[in-house]
Design a protein that fits this description.
The chain is of the alpha+beta class and about 270 residues long. It has one domain. It starts with a strand and ends in an 8-residue tail after the last helix. Helix content is about 25%, strand content about 25%.
Amino acid sequence: MVSLSRFGDQLRFDALPGGMRSVQCYALDAATLAGPFGTVKHEALVGLRKATDRALSMATEIRITCANGTDVSGRAPPNTPPADTTCARFPLSVFSPILARGFSGKVALPRFLTGTGARYYDPFTVALPAGVFVHFTHGRLIKFSGPDEGVRRADAHYDFVAGRYGLDRDSIHSWHAGIHPGCNFTGNIERSFEAWSGSAFGNPRILHFHTCGSVPPGEISWNVIDATIEADRIPLWKGGVFQPTLLPDGARILDNSPDLLRVFASPERAIGL
């Protein structure tokens, strides 16, 4: 089964009957599919994801920071192999989610909270003023801080979504970031937060946490823009720029994939913000 709509993406953690294989396409239109996002060899991106998964799963400390004040640290749970969706992602644009229970810190939210695409509810997105932070410990939301109105809106949104679906409100399931330098989102995010949340996450400028619910992927995402991700002090991402040559085997993967190397040399920067 090949799905070209977000309906298929809502089934990305479900097992299909009879050994059926599911492929979810994340290209928003034909032009995107025909461009660098859709035409880089899939095998090269699979190799890149595996190399990233290995580096992050083996790190004794991972630190996530950003210019707006994000500061999160921890490590992937030991002896827990990376696990992704039951469907195949195409184009492959993120590394496997890392469970959040080993992480603590604070995240600087952009001026919104939006859904993960697992379910659609109204409002799907809540606007926030600048300067709202979320604080968490060992994968549990502790509090929001910042302007009073922003804290009130964030808390109310979590109460609404968790109450509607009977979810563990303060559970933070996992996080990951984009690895595909050909992924972009043209225009302004406000033209469709639903489309944005289901496509732009593959750009290396975006890291997101899956929150509000203990079953993957949760219902509300925290998006960190232009993050630096250090694995044992090696900046695999620096200010939103993915640096795959710092991965063990990363240089070889790029050398064997000239089309992927070209896209990394001139990465997409448009993410709707």
